[in-house]
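User: I'm writing a tutorial on reading structure tokens. Could you give me a worked example: one chain, its sequence, then its tokens, then a sentence or two explaining what the tokens reveal?
Assistant: Sure. Here is the example chain.
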Amino acid sequence: MTSCATLLVHLISPLSAVAQDYPIRPIKIVVPFAPGGSTDIVARMLGQRLATSMRQPVIVENKPGATGILGVDAVAKAQPDGYTLLVTTSSSLMSSRFMYEKLPFIVERDLSLVYQVAQVPAVLVVNSDLRVNSASELLKYVSTNKGKLAYGSWGLGTPAHLAGAYMDFKQHGEMAHAVYKGESLVMQELLAGRVHMAFITASIAAPHIAAGNVRGLAVTSARRTPSLPQVPTMQEQGVLDPAYRLTGWIGLAVPASTPSAIVKRLNDETRKAVQEEGFRSRVTELGMDPLADSSPEAFKSAFQHDLPIWGELIKQAGIKPQ
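And here are its predicted structure tokens:
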């Protein structure tokens, strides 16, 4: 009995030491996109707060390429010791699953989801000359103006592309899909009338909606977003299709097999950061909804819920795996 107890102590003590000692050196956050975007901004804000609370430098490394795959894969293959973190988006973890025949990683096998930092609802906006005032009116308009409309996005597999393609599919609208290199360019084309509608982030849409240059018809989140309280949800307007309630997100992950004690520490420290007023207000300014309380279990559940919806949207958009 004594020998069994001694063995148990030896098995548990390394984990306890990890929890007590971590971190003892600088931490790296990998962002799988170029500097300056909303994911990069959130990662740097989080890094600053983790550096203060965990008393170690936190370095943000941008590793863009292949729609986020390169950066995600780098973290998936990193040592599971809590010193390489990933701040990324829903599209880099979910769209890629259905857009590429061979991925170098599988999220469920190679990553541990730690904290869902913020949800990123899209805003359905239309050119101000389009004579529709609600989401339900737009759906009818798309159906009755077959082949006359265009929607914009900033790339294949992005939420803007998938939502627009889904609307086109359901309404038999035969809309043209115009692809640009960024959301700002989509908005410019919308303002110029070269595209008629787009699903776009609140941070890009809000100033133009306020100025009356475009019309905000709906947000895709379950609740109205704080940065656009005057814009109703799809559900409020009777559009109950769950595909229109799909929101993106930004989250924190680590390599699989990272000790549970470290995952818990990172979750706790991230929660403190997200609950800090300055962090929350800045994230809201970026058009996102910060999540004051998230857990690895809740994050995993959200991922499992959204993944098949993304898959169906990509299939209906006609995107063939590369």
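What the tokens reveal: The CA atoms of residues 88 and 250 lie 6 Å apart. The chain is about 45% helix and 20% strand.
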